Amino acid sequence: QQQAEQLSHLEHQREQSEWRKAEELRRREECVRELKLELDKERNKEPVVKYVTQTVEIESPSTLLQLSEARQQNEQLSEKLRNQRERCRHLEENVRHSDEVSCNLQHKVFKLYPFQNSSIACLYVKFPALQKRLSALPSTLRTIKTDYASLRSQVRNFSDFYGTAIKEAKKQVKANKDLIEKYRKEVALRRKYHEQLVELKGNIRVLCRVKPVLKEDQHEEGQTVVVTTDPNNESALTVLSKGKAKNFELDKVFHPQATQEEVSRVKPLITSCIDGYHVCIFAYGQTGSGKTYTMEGSVENPGINQRALKHLFNEIEERKDMWTYTVSVSSVEIYNEVLRDLLSKDGEKLDIKINPDGTGQLHVPGLRVMEVKSFQHIKKILAIARKNRITFGTQMNQHSSRSHALLTVTVLGTDLASGAKTTGKLNLVDLAGSERVWKSGAEGERLKEAQNINRSLLALGDVIQALKAHQTHIPFRNSRLTYLLQDSLGKGNKTAMVVQVSSLESNVGETLCSLKFAQRVCKVELGPAARKIETGGHNESPHSSPE
Ligand SMILES: Nc1ncnc2c1ncn2[C@@H]1O[C@H](COP(=O)(O)OP(=O)(O)OP(=O)(O)O)[C@@H](O)[C@H]1O
Fold first, then answer.
1. What residues line ligand 1, using a CB cutoff of 6 Å?
2. Distance from C-alpha of 316 to C-alpha of 321, rounded to nearest angstrom
3. What is the CATH number of the domain that holds 521?
4. What pLDDT, on a 0 to 100 scale, did the predictor assign at position 223?
5. InterPro entries recorded for this chain (predicted)?
6. Which of 1, 148, 274, 373 sits a CA distance of 20 to 30 A from 129?
7. What is the residue with the minimal CA distance to atom 2 of ligand 1?
8. Residue positions in the annotated binding site for ATP?
9. Quick check: ipTM above 0.95?
C-alpha cells in the first residue's frame, strides 16, 4: 500500500513537473513568438539609421546627435536580445532538468512495479490480436444476419409444410381408424360364428384370465411382463418366450385389469343349469395365478361362485310364477386323492360310488347336501366351506392351495303347468396348482402332494384328450377329480374352463404349459348340450352314462 501511495505520489509529482514543464515551454514559446513579432515589427519599421552613402558631414552636430541616439538605441536592442537569449537558455536548462526528473521517475516506477508493466506489456501484445478480432466481428455479424433471415424464411415455410403434414397424418389416422373398425367388426362376426359353432358342437369354452402384476410380485426377479392381450381382439393372447412371440387363440381373454364382475359373465351357463343342463366351470393354472381369486374371490369382491349363485336365485325368482325350484349344495375337497366334506365340521373322508338307484349316476355316501332357500343362505354355506377348507388346511400342513375344491349346486325344477321335471347341475371347481413337480423342488410329503395333484391333473388331461379324440372309452376313473366331474365333463354337458396365467417372465414356462393345455381343451367337443328333463315319466336326455 505504501509503495502504491509512493507510486501515486511520484506519479503526481511527475505529472506536476510535466505540467510545469509544458507550461514553461508554452510560456517560453509565447515569449519567443512575441519577440519574433516585435523583431519583425522592428524590421518592418523604417530604418532609423540611414546608411549614408553620401559623404556626410560627420562633424555636423545634428548628425552627431542622431548618431549617438542610434548607437544608444542599438545598444538597448542588443541588450534586450542578450537578455532574451539568456532567458531562452535558462528555459532550455529547465526543460532538460524536467526531462531528467521525468526519466528518473519512470525508472523508479518500472523498478517498483515490474509485473504491472509486464502485464501492460502483455496487454500491448494482445492488443493487436484483439483489434484484429474486433475488426473481424462485423463480417461475422453480417453472416449471422444472413443466417437469421434464411431461418426466418424457413420457419415461415415450415408452418405451411407442417400444416400439410398434419392434414396428411390426419387422413392416415382416419384410414387406420376405419381399418381398425373393419377389423373389429370382422373379429366380432368371427366370434359370433365361432360361438354358434361352439354351441352346436358343444365345445368346452375356454376363457383365460391374465393375473395383474401385484406389488408383492414386483420384488421378485424376472418381473418383466411377457403376456400381452389385444384390445381389438378379445380372443387373442401373445406370450413372448426366448425372444419369440407365441400367439394363442381362446374363446375369451380377460386382460389383467378385468374386474371380478367382467370375469363372472358366465350367466348364460347358469341359466342353462336352471333349464336342466349339467354345467361345469373350473379354474386351471399354476399356484398363485389367481384360481381361488377368480372362483371364490374375497368378501368385498366375490368371484364367479357367489356371483353365479346370485344370478341363479334372481333367475329362479323371476320364474317363480311358472316354475318351482329346489336348490341344494354340497362342497368337497380332494387332497392327496382323499375326498373330504367341506360342509361337515370334522371333515370326514368320503368315497365315490355308483348310485344304487340304478340310474348309473355317481353318488358319494355320507356327503352333506344342504337345501338352500335364498342367496343369503348360500352365502353362509359358502363361508362355512371356505372356513373348513382353511381349517383342514391348517391341520394338514397348509394344504389348501394343494387341494381341489368342488362346489356342486343341484337345481331340481318343476314346471307348474306341465309337471315336467328338470335336473340341472352346476359344478364350480377350483383346481390345485398345476406347476410341475421338478419346478416346485418338492420332497417327502410335498412330493407326494405334488404327485397326487399331477396325477389328477394328468387324469383330467387324459379325459380331455379322450373327449377330444371322440374315444369310446373316457378314463374318468383314473382319479377322484375326474370321477367326480364325470357327469359334468361328459357328453351333452356345458363346460367352461378359466385358465389363469401369470404375465411375468419368471412364470413363462408354466404360462405356456397352461395355454397349450387350454388350446387342447378348446378343441374338446362334448356334442350338443342335452337337457335333463322328464316330461310325464319320459326322460328327454340321453343319459350321460358312466364309463
Ligand atoms: N385378478 C387379481 N386381482 C388382484 N389380486 C389377485 C388377482 N388374481 C390373484 N390375486 C391375488 O394373488 C394371490 C394368489 O391368488 P390365488 O390364491 O387366487 O391363486 P391360486 O391360483 O388359487 O393359488 P393356489 O393354486 O396356490 O391355490 C392372492 O393374494 C390373490 O388375492
1. 211-212, 214, 285, 287-293, 401, 432-433, 500
2. 10
3. 3.40.850.10
4. 74
5. Kinesin-like_fam, Kinesin_motor_CS, Kinesin_motor_dom, Kinesin_motor_dom_sf, P-loop_NTPase
6. 148
7. 211
8. 285-292
9. yes
Looking at the structure, do residues 208 and 341 belong to the same domain, yes or no?
Answer: yes
Q: Is residue 72 part of a domain?
A: yes
CA dist., res. 382 & res. 331, Å (int):
9
Rounded to an integer, what distance in angstroms lies between the CA atom of residue 321 and that of residue 95? 141
| Residues 221 and 327 grouped into a single domain | yes
Q: For residue 449, give the C-alpha cell.
A: 402332494
Tell me the CA–centroid distance for residue 349 and ligand 1, in Å.
27
Look up residue 426 and give its three cell numbers: 352346476
Residue 229 in any domain: the answer is: yes
314, 208: one domain: yes
| pLDDT averaged over every residue in the chain | 82
| Predicted pLDDT of residue 54 | 59
**Distance from the CA of 211 to the center of ligand 1, in angstroms?**
8
Domain range for residue 285?
202-539
What pLDDT was estimated at residue 265? 76
Q: What percent of the chain has pLDDT over 90?
A: 20
Give 297's DSSP letter: B
Number of the ligand 1 atom closest to the C-alpha atom of 431: 25
**217 and 362 both lie in a single domain:** yes
- Give 464 Cα–ligand 1 centroid separation in angstroms: 25
Q: Does residue 68 sit within a domain?
A: yes
Nearest to residue 518, comparing CAs of 235, 266, 326, 296? 235
Residues 362 and 478 in one domain: yes
Q: Are residues 373 and 512 in the same domain?
A: yes
Residue 295 alpha carbon to ligand 1 centre in Å: 10
Q: Whole-model pTM?
A: 0.64
| Strand runs labelled E in 231-305 | 233-241, 244-249, 252-254, 278-285
The minimum-distance atom of ligand 1 relative to the CA of 296 is: 18
Best residue for ligand 1 mutational test, from 210, 257, 286, 293 (most atoms within 8 Å of Cβ): 293
Average pLDDT over residues 423-448: 72
Residue-wise DSSP of 277-345: -EEEEEEEESTTSSHHHHHTB-SSSB-HHHHHHHHHHHHHHHTTTTEEEEEEEEEEEEETTEEEETTST
Domain count, the chain: 2
Q: pLDDT of 491-503, one tens digit each?
A: 778 888 999 999 9
Q: Lowest mean pLDDT of 219-233, 238-252, 493-507, name the range.
A: 219-233
DSSP helix/strand/coil, 412: strand
- Whole-angstrom distance, CA of residue 149 vs CA of residue 29: 61
Distance from the alpha carbon of residue 294 to the mean position of ligand 1, in angstroms: 8
178 within a domain of the structure (yes/no): no
Sorted by sequence, the CB contacts under 8 Å of residue 296 that are 6+ apart come out as 302, 303, 305, 306, 382, 386, 430
**Cα 341 to chain center, whole Å?**
48
Residues 429, 310 share a domain = yes
- pLDDT digit string (tens) for 76-87? 898 988 988 898
Residue among 253, 282, 292 to mutate when testing ligand 1 (max atoms within 8 A of CB) = 292
- Report whether pLDDT(542) > 50: no
Residue with cell 434464411: 150
Residue ranges of the binding site: 285-292
